[in-house]
Amino acid sequence: MDAVIEAGPYGGTWESLSRYRVPQWYRDAKFGIFLHWGAFSVPAFGNEWYPRTMYRRGTPAFEHHVATYGRHDRFGYKDFGAPRPATSSRCQALLGQANAQTRAGLPKTCHP
What we know:
This protein is mostly helical. It has six helices and two strands, in the order αααβαααβ. The protein has helices at residues 2-7, 14-17, 24-28, 50-53, 60-69, 89-101; strands spanning 32-36, 104-108. The longest helix is centred in the C-terminal third of the chain and has 13 residues, at 89-101. The two termini are 15 Å apart.
């Protein structure tokens, strides 16, 4: 990772990052959508931090996971598999509305 950073246009300082200029198309956009859609969408519980909190004893996600799917050693996050494509009528309606009013859409699949 250090090699990639070294080869890039910015260094590891705030001064370096201050040279960044937001692209014109982004500044012109009045409305944008950031999509958080991944395997965590399958249980549809809590938020996109589900993959992390489902393993932390005492959290609502942990309790929900055990009650709904069973013990983690029998059904863990990997067992949710690939997320479903956005083909349901509700998803299509939301995407249609968003497409009509959005200049930018950025997908996010998982927090590090």
